Amino acid sequence: MSQQVQGVVAPGKNEPVRIETIVIPDPGPGEAVVKIQACGVCHTDLHYKQGGINDDYPFLLGHEASGVVESVGDGVTDVAPGDFVILNWRAVCGSCRACLRGRPWYCFNTHNAERKMTLLAGGTELSPALGIGAFAEKTLVAAGQCTKVDPAVAPAVAGLLGCGVMAGIGAAINTGDVGRGDSVAVIGCGGVGDAAIVGSRLAGAARIIAVDIDDRKLATAKTMGATHTVNSRTTDPVEAIRELTGGFGADVVIEAVGRPETYEQAFYARDLAGTVVLVGVPTPEMRLELPLLDVFGRGGSLKSSWYGDCLPSRDFPMLIDLHQQGRIDLGAFVTETIGLGDVEKAFARMHEGDVLRSVVVF
Ligand code: APR
Ligand code: ZN
Ligand code: ZN
Asked: What is the CA(186)–ligand 1 centre distance, in A?
């Protein structure tokens, strides 16, 4: 039997979000209904609202979430009702070329639930943000989007691994392959950049240089594990990073802003044959111009990090373990917990740079 719950919907381009009654169908084959316990407010939710992703309004927002599986459809064996899970937006298919080559984090056939959630009023089909839609009491997903983790961890903390925090940690440990003794610079110290700092520290980086244009962000970056900070509004970050690394540049530079000028800083702030990781997400009109001779002559690797190149089944339980051992503090990313009705206010606070993460708790 379908059920009705409250959820946060973006009705049209730049229109304020509102709480609507939504209809959740029973899970079809391979699907699960999850009772949401917490869901973080991410930039991507704001981008959906602003029309920056596509025009498939109305959107059911929210995608950084944890909760408890309520029911599952036919053929679901990996999770069962009662399991505490973190939702992910890249449920790998297991059969595409990337999956078959043993690189499932590059899966190009990730899937979502096929049954549709709808608005009670008018029956309009909803487009769930990143195939999740978790600013709602319950949501319908593909079972592969659920990763079971230890229920002892606070839901508000666990949910953050579902997007930004995983992207940042993964940019360092998976994509950047930061190793013991490496020097790392992180440009842009919001939630994603700070998570890259946490990941770099976890991997054993000797020197972690945080770069931002906001001193408040740099102060937080220090508490996350940055050994040095550079305000790039007042100091040339490329020179500063070179000075802090014996004149060479950092082994790995992680760009967590998503802009051409910060990418260029990252490109020149690394040592010869060093690595640049782009985890910040650019917008379609952005262009990059670099001397091709520098791209050749400086060597090394220029990588992008999608979702931290994570494999949820491998990385979520591992990071929850490390959190519970006290080796990383995922709780530091939760700036505030809010109610379902506060998402619009949280967007404003995010825009002002006041928060790492506001998390809706149910
Ligand atoms: N140089 C350095 N830092 C900058 C610059 C700049 N030119 N412009 C902005 N920043 C800093 C901001 O001050 C802020 O601390 O970058 C940080 C961005 O943080 P958030 O806005 O909190 O964004 P976050 O959630 O960390 O995401 C960063 O990754 O997933 C993507 O879409 C996301 O592109 C975004 C990026
Ligand atoms: Zn695949
Ligand atoms: Zn997100």
From this structure: 11
* CATH of region 3-162+329-361: 3.90.180.10
Residues in contact with ligand 1 (CB, 6 Å cut-off): 43, 164, 167, 187-193, 211-214, 217, 232, 256-259, 262, 279-281, 353
93 alpha carbon to ligand 2 midpoint, in Å?
4
Tokens read off for 160:
């953050």
Residues of the chain with CATH 3.90.180.10: 3-162+329-361
First to last CA, the chain: 23
Q: CA-to-CA distance for 207 and 201, rounded, in angstroms? A: 9
- pLDDT of 1 reads 87
pLDDT of residue 283: 87
Ligand 1 center–CA 258 separation, angstroms: 7
Scanning the structure block, which residue is given the tokens 């494999």? 311
Question: Best mutation site among 47, 48, 257, 351 for ligand 1, i.e. most ligand atoms within 8 A of its Cβ?
Answer: 257
Q: How far apart are alpha carbons 222 and 173 in whole angstroms? A: 19
**205 phi/psi in degrees, rounded to 5:** -60, 140
Q: What is the CATH number of domain 174-304?
A: 3.40.50.720
82 neighbors 151 (Cβ within 8 angstroms): no
Instruction: Give me the residues of the chain with pLDDT under 70, please.
Output: none
pTM of the full structure: 0.96
